[in-house]
Amino acid sequence: MTGIITPPPDASRPVVVVNADGSRPVVVVNADDYGLSPGVSQGILALIRQGRLSGTSCMTATPYWPEHATWLAEVADQADIGLHLTLTDQEPAGPCPALAPSGRFGSVGDLMVRALTGRLMGAAIQADLTAEIDRQLDLFEAHAGRAPSHVDGHQHVHLLPGIRGLVLDAVARRYPAGSVYVRDCSEPIPAVLARGVDSVKALIIATLARGLAAAAARRGIPTNRGFRGVYDFGPGRDFPALMAKFLEPARDRALIMVHPALPDEVLAGLDPVVASRQVEQAYLAGPAFAALLDRAGVRLGRLLG
């Protein structure tokens, strides 16, 4: 959609983009890590039911996925539900003798080093990656009973050299053109700097994503138009203030990544940012978030309608 800028009614309100048809811009607020633990999945489901999320990305190689996938049936028409491709810090969905010879993926730092130094391009590792991408997509379809609405990567692994092309090829091979989108984590450098939220981290991710949208378009794969939500999850962060920054400027089909959860013992044993997840959960469920969306002049929606 083509947008036009209209002046705010008063100086306290942000500049608002209005689509050419007069509608408010659609923003996808997508919760990552569905299936990581019961508390993560239950928290995300509660927010979708409440109309506070318009997407979630699912980890299908976890032991919780088969059961948690069935919970999504009631909200399947309310949100984008896609694959959160996971290639770090967990057991693969099947044998990966070249990529994960110990039977467990390594850290994201290790994977990035291997990707950026060309060490994922060998034939055996490429075969492992291709098979694992297909296995995680197979698990999504088998338990969700449908194709994913989108594909992205846990810790943004789908952006990495040696992985990006395989993800795009799998989506193009398995699904009709235009029916499944891939998350584009690029954002213009001036926008990242103006936002001023963990700019170095956000710029690294945006740089890794450079060229993804064009590569996807060549395969007939849609992408989002802007990516926000990067911050360091440190204690004491003012998440409401961060969300206000992530919504400005309003842009149609932008995607904001969030990580809400209800607390549970499983998550506490897996994740160092449990407290931040709880803060996100509480804010997204509360009235202040709904008021923020109204002030920003946007509405939550699914990327492809």
From TrEMBL:
GO terms for biological process: carbohydrate metabolic process. One of its GO terms (molecular function) is metal ion binding. The keyword Acyltransferase does not apply. It holds the Pfam family YdjC. CDD domains: YdjC_like_3. Signal peptide: none annotated. Gene3D superfamilies: Glycoside hydrolase/deacetylase (3.20.20.370). Keywords: Carbohydrate metabolism, Hydrolase, Magnesium, Metal-binding. Its cofactor is Mg(2+). This is ChbG/HpnK family deacetylase. It comes from Nitrospirillum amazonense.
